[in-house]
Amino acid sequence: MKVLVIGGGGRDHAIVHACVRAGHEVLCTPGNPGIAAMARVLNSPQDAASLAQLARDEGTDVVIVGPEAYLAAGVVDACAALEVPAFGPVQAASRLEGDKAWSKAFMARHGIPTAAHRSFTALDEALAHLAGGATTLPIVVKDAGLKAGKGVTIAASVAEAEAALREIFTAPDAQAVIEDFMTGQEVTILALTDGERFALTPPSQDHKTISEGDTGPMTGGMGVICPFPVDDATMAVIRQTIIEPTLRGMAAEGHPFCGVLYAGLMLTPSGPKVVEFNARFGDPEAEAVLPLLESDLAQHALDAARGQLDPSTVRFRAAASAVVILAAPGYPGEPERGIPLILPPTQAGEVIYHAGTREDAGQLRSHGGRVLAVTATAPTLNEALGRAYALAERVDFPGAQLRRDLGARIGARPEPSDV
């Protein structure tokens, strides 16, 4: 099968890797140096029409879309117009991620549990809501638009919440969501779906802030553990109260959701609730989940695009994975670019995904905020963490930022592995 992967980050490297492992011919645009080592990288305009035409000209059997911006731009719609199967939601369905205010209203319409919230299209109204004293601190302030996993402030004071709102409303046509702070463990559930049938990946847990102890500013994700322990009863509740009604609701509203439904959840004392939906594989969750996939991602993508996904064929290994993100100095503000990188050799069960790199006259260099996703798998989570941290230490990346407390929320500790 010939597969075209659209994207150039760590998630997209993981998607390419999964398809290559299954024996497919893989093309990618715009790609990155890590992807170029295992697939054919194509130079193409990145607008939806050009990408769809590229897929058709290349005789692509299926397109897998990585980043959310392409979905919001309608690349799946453009592929459909040329009768090229594409795995991802159409533009209207991707609004579930691209417009948090709409997404919250959708959850309310369909009884999907989430935090109490209000949405605002004007700064004065949002500030008045805070000044009215109806909020309980801490309070969560979200930019309603696409912010690459960021754009969220957990405000400990009204002044901090006001500052976040003022920042959001510096942009034209801005919207903000103010919602109650939820307590509990945060977990990510990914559903591969054709719009009706779905298969769930193992639960994973990202670590969102830049520093240990869940401190510092929000990032796009600094590391992942998988699987995160969720009992069968809770998984049944997640299926019945979140995944199934979301897919039914999207279909009922005329926008069936095909692709990867990302449910970012909080396991609160009163049950699982949605923190946010995304319309694609998480990044860096994909780098943790996909190395555990035993079955054929490209075949699942093609089946889903045709409306024929068989969930029983989606299989994951009974093992664990850990992802350590190496971020550039200055991230999540203005990251330093151009730092020379030297990657160590890897063993079976280890891979270094390129998230923000470029090659300059044969020298690999940093070219983004989150630069590398250092991933390891092992029979146990503690062993996977030990392997991932050991591999990260062997990367020559001056000034790299990383979190050293992945898994600490559940008492996981890195330990040596025999692998």
UniProtKB/TrEMBL annotation:
UniProt gene name: purD
Source organism: Deinococcus arcticus
GO biological process: 'de novo' IMP biosynthetic process; purine nucleobase biosynthetic process
Catalytic activity, as annotated: 5-phospho-beta-D-ribosylamine + glycine + ATP = N(1)-(5-phospho-beta-D-ribosyl)glycinamide + ADP + phosphate + H(+)
The entry's keywords: ATP-binding, Ligase, Nucleotide-binding, Purine biosynthesis
Metabolic or biological pathway, per its Swiss-Prot or TrEMBL entry: Purine metabolism; IMP biosynthesis via de novo pathway; N(1)-(5-phospho-D-ribosyl)glycinamide from 5-phospho-alpha-D-ribose 1-diphosphate: step 2/2
MF terms (GO), sorted A to Z: ATP binding; metal ion binding; phosphoribosylamine-glycine ligase activity
Cofactor(s) the record lists: Mg(2+); Mn(2+)
Listed PANTHER family: PHOSPHORIBOSYLAMINE--GLYCINE LIGASE, PHOSPHORIBOSYLAMINE--GLYCINE LIGASE, CHLOROPLASTIC
Pfam family, one: GARS_N
Name of the protein described by the UniProt record: Phosphoribosylamine--glycine ligase
EC assignment: 6.3.4.13
Occurrences of domain ATP-grasp (ranges): 104-306
Class of enzymatic activity (EC top level): ligase
SMART domains: GARS_A, GARS_C
Family: Belongs to the GARS family.
